[in-house]
Amino acid sequence: MSRGGKVAVVGSLIFSGLVIYGVHYQQRKERETMHYGVIKDAERQRLKKLQNLQDLEAQRALQTELEKDQSVRR
Predict the structure, then answer these.
(1) Can you name a GO cellular component term (predicted)?
(2) What is the distance in angstroms between the CA of the first residue and the CA of the last residue of the chain?
(3) Which of the residues 4, 33, 49, 61 has an alpha carbon 20 to 30 A from that of 42?
(4) Backbone angles phi and psi of 72, in degrees to 5
(5) How many domains does the chain have?
């Protein structure tokens, strides 16, 4: 095999290896990004639930306060 042929084969092997590494690196980063999104969604849901519970308690307290001032038939 000529020297030019060897250089071409080695060059194509190096290029292929770099492309494969780049694709795997990109996939790993995308997976991490998607996982971070799941974590953010879980935290957002937890905060929303906490806010809803606080709103419910405030509404119950308001209802109790208003029922003291008014006669309510149930």
Answers:
(1) mitochondrion
(2) 98
(3) 61
(4) -120, 130
(5) 1
Domain span including residue 36: 28-67
DSSP string, 30-74: HHHHHHHHHHHHHHHHHHHHHHHHHHHHHHHHHHHHHHHHS----
Structural domain contains residue 50: yes
Return the structure tokens found at 23.
């694709």
Q: Report the pLDDT averaged over residues 31-60.
A: 97
Average pLDDT rounded to a whole number, residues 37-46: 96
Compute CA 62 distance to the chain's CA centroid, rounded to the nearest angstrom: 37
Structure tokens given for 70: 């008014």
